Amino acid sequence: MGYRDTFISVAGDCRAATGQAPPARARPTVAGVQHAMLTARPGHYTQEEVLLASSPGLRAREDVGDLEQLPAEELQRLLVEHFAQPRACLRASPLPKTYGWGLHHDEHGRITLHAVDSAEYARLSTDTSLTQLEAMRSRRAG
Q1: Which one in 57, 113, 116, 121 has a CA-CA gap of 20 to 30 Å to 64?
Q2: Range of the domain at 110
């Protein structure tokens, strides 16, 4: 499922002029969890880990806690269970759709965030060695 050597640019209808942190909430949102993970440990997490940790079903479970604290076997079991059904990828994440973040997946599938107005975003978005994808639009074109 995960991307390798790929850059996901912001959606064509994204209104953010720079990378914005999602608003803090008492109960973290999907965007809040994803942003916190990817800013705390750039280049550490894969798409699957980010999607698993930010899934509402997993965040509601008291027995899971932090993915970093899980034994490798338990993490693998949760990943297999979670992705047994088709899931949306990070192209549908609020980060590139709403909050102005590009997502770079390196050769190992590890993700770093890049603000739409940054020099690194501009470089990555024109790098022909990367697969270039755009985040999914929030609204239909037309």
Answers
A1: 113
A2: 6-134
